Amino acid sequence: MGSRQITEKSLAMLRSLPRLSLGNIRDNPGSRKNIKRGRGQHGGDKHGAGNKGSGQRQNYMRLGYETGNNPFYLRMPHEHYYKGHHHRRQYPPISLLEIQKLIDTNRLDITKPIDIASIVRSGLYNFFPDQKHFGIHLTDEGMDIFSAKVNIEVQWASEQVIAAIEKNGGVITTAYYDPHSLILLKNPKSFFQTGQAIPRRMIPPPDVIEYYTSAEMRGYLADPEKISEERLRLSQKYGYQLPILESDKNYNMLCERKDPRQIFYGLEPGWVINLRDKCILKPKDEELLQFYAS
Amino acid sequence: MATVWRSQCAFARFFVGKTGRILNNAADLGIKLTPESISVSTTRSYSNYSHSPLVKKIKEQYDFEIEKNPPEWAYVERLLPLEIIPPVQPKETYPSGWIPPKEEAKDLPYFMPRTKNHELPIYLVITHKGQRKVSMLRKIEGDIWLMNDLIKEHLQKNFNRYIETRVHELGRFIEVKGDFVNSLREWAYSKGF
């Protein structure tokens, strides 16, 4: 019998066999472990627990304990600047260079205001609100090449970053979002699908109120007149001609800001978004309106 | 599987003719029960909470205005995730330093396509706690051996030393011993990839 015939025959055999399904497959070898504790030659004696001590008795020492030695973690004096590190807010960085790259590769639309939702939507930035991440820190890498006119909203920015954006005729705002709002901003679709009403954004905690009300940092709670003064002051400091916003053809887009209680652009707190029927439910009840306006 | 079904049928046997007893349990011989079909008779005295009828409809407490296709829907669409990675629209300049692939690269006997994120598939692989650095060129199509020779020549000219490479023809990648990612990127851009 030639090899061709063997192939034909085995293929014919295979065709007559039942289809592979969950009902006729076997587990991978070694995937099931015998939970019985063997005796004697079948894994008896010490049963894999070793000879004497913690292994056999499961009285494992606490972490860092060195059986009476002065433990390593207590040997040097404490470092107070790490105190409360697990409570501090973190702002995962994204640089101006990366933002420019997102714009160049059409991941970000600069004809619309950019916020954390649109940056996460690009798929190349991620953050985890449950791990004390409170939004974007816009860093200064690539500030010399940055040349897009944008209306951007970030959570933390330095002076030179603000200057780099305003030099190109753009606008930057620093805004605070509470973790719950950030969860919604990270994945708006899954939130809309739950059918819940959009909540209000919370006000910043006391230690950052100063940052978000300062015009130098372009805080979202700052006085707009003071911000325009600061824009001029910064342009004089860094030595560039400040483009006039009012004469810009995208003036309306550049002036678009969120309400301090608003999470998404154009969508007010209290609204329910129905993705399937493409409709928006707006509350009419006076009590609700008052609640969401406060 | 068979054993599982038999046991479920055995369970259902208790409820034959007594469908009122099965509340949310729909494992009743393939018939899907709705709450209406198994509503508890009203003559029962409710000594136990489990005997009371199911809640049928929760009354809506607040009044809502329902708007179909409102003008604000554009703001919702802006938030929905991208279906595909958007193709790059040609521009005059790319300030970020990103370079678009050129058409003439397709005429070469070897080819390296961009990744789905429009980047070059050239990576630095660091292993052995940073002791071993290997530059990896992936997704190579066409004459991989010719490409290997050219890369070797280019790097030898730039760095003035022997460059060790490894070609995996089936896996379609070339590994270059050492960190030459930037130089290799420059070479790939010069070829138009």
UniProtKB/TrEMBL annotation, chain A:
SUPFAM superfamilies: Ribosomal proteins L15p and L18e. It comes from the Eukaryota. One of its GO terms (biological process) is translation. Residues 93-173 form the Large ribosomal subunit protein uL15/eL18 domain. Keywords: Ribonucleoprotein, Ribosomal protein. Residues 21-57 are annotated as: Disordered. Signal peptide: none annotated. The keyword Ribosomal protein applies. The keyword Ribosomal protein applies. One of its GO terms (molecular function) is structural constituent of ribosome. GO terms for cellular component: mitochondrial large ribosomal subunit. HAMAP family: Ribosomal_uL15. Belongs to the universal ribosomal protein uL15 family. PANTHER family: 50S RIBOSOMAL PROTEIN L15, LARGE RIBOSOMAL SUBUNIT PROTEIN UL15M. This is Large ribosomal subunit protein uL15m. It comes from Vanessa tameamea. The lineage of its organism: Eukaryota, Metazoa, Ecdysozoa, Arthropoda, Hexapoda.
Automatic annotation (TrEMBL), chain B:
Keywords: Mitochondrion, Ribonucleoprotein, Ribosomal protein. GO terms for molecular function: structural constituent of ribosome. It holds the Pfam family Img2. GO terms for biological process: translation. One of its GO terms (cellular component) is mitochondrial large ribosomal subunit. It is found in: Mitochondrion. It comes from the Eukaryota. Belongs to the mitochondrion-specific ribosomal protein mL49 family. This is Large ribosomal subunit protein mL49. It comes from Vanessa tameamea (Kamehameha butterfly).
